[in-house]
Amino acid sequence: LKVTYTPIKLKEENMYGMVIVLEDVTEQKRLDQQRKDFVANVSHELRTPLTTIKSYLEALEDGAMDEPELARRFLKVTRQEADRMTRLIQDLLQLSHLDSRKITFHKQQISLEPLLQEVADHFSFQCKERCISLTLYTHSKLPQIFADRDKLHQVLDNLVSNAVKYTPDGGSIAIVAQTDTQGMVEVGIADTGIGIPKKDLGRIFERFYRVDKARSRSLGGTGLGLAIAQEIVHHHEGEIEIDSIYKKGTLVSFTLPPVTGGKKDE
Ligand code: ADP
Asked: Ranges for the Histidine kinase domain (predicted)?
């Protein structure tokens, strides 16, 4: 609580008084802390791959270069780390554009099914290789939605890639699209993966929040995928939620308003 006192004196009446302002700064402090944590996280996330790149380059300089097999391996690691930095910067830029509302959404009337099929096809090879069954179920009378196709593609890509990343070989993933009780179009991505402990669920949409940092990094994650998906869904006036049973599986679902007719491109 921030308290400010302003003494006042009413000359004519020879009276004295005081204006006391009590201001609840809890929210402001929380936002301040969030901003500081974010900067610290970004610095840390960028420094980690840089440190790796530097140490591998030093090893190459110190002689690893003369062993072609070793050199090839070290170069591969440095490239992977550079790729991770690129991904991280792309994700950060996108979040910053979403925050400042600089991104224009090209919303139009679209059918969800072909988009879901496209995303499922994109991951089908990877899933087959790891014996993960990936199935798409769509309700036959799914209404059209009013959405930015590319952005929605990204939401689906982030969520399905998480399901693939965090599901061990031999598991299964289902993408389900239906209308919910309120008439909203609902897309759910369910997996039989490693799950998320209950204590982490409430913070999982926060930027850089990860259950297992090392695991996420080793799988190429940036820790921003869910945050970006949430921003995009909110820009479509939808809701996104996650439910999970630790060591059993996860369900991420989001809603989108159906086309009610008469909407124009935004
Ligand atoms: P990341 O790049 O780390 O995957 P995300 O923002 O996409 O970042 O997800 C944040 C964290 O949420 C992940 O690091 C992981 O701990 C957890 N998570 C997300 N999706 C799943 C899932 N389907 N199964 C298990 N854990 C998940």
From this structure: 41-260
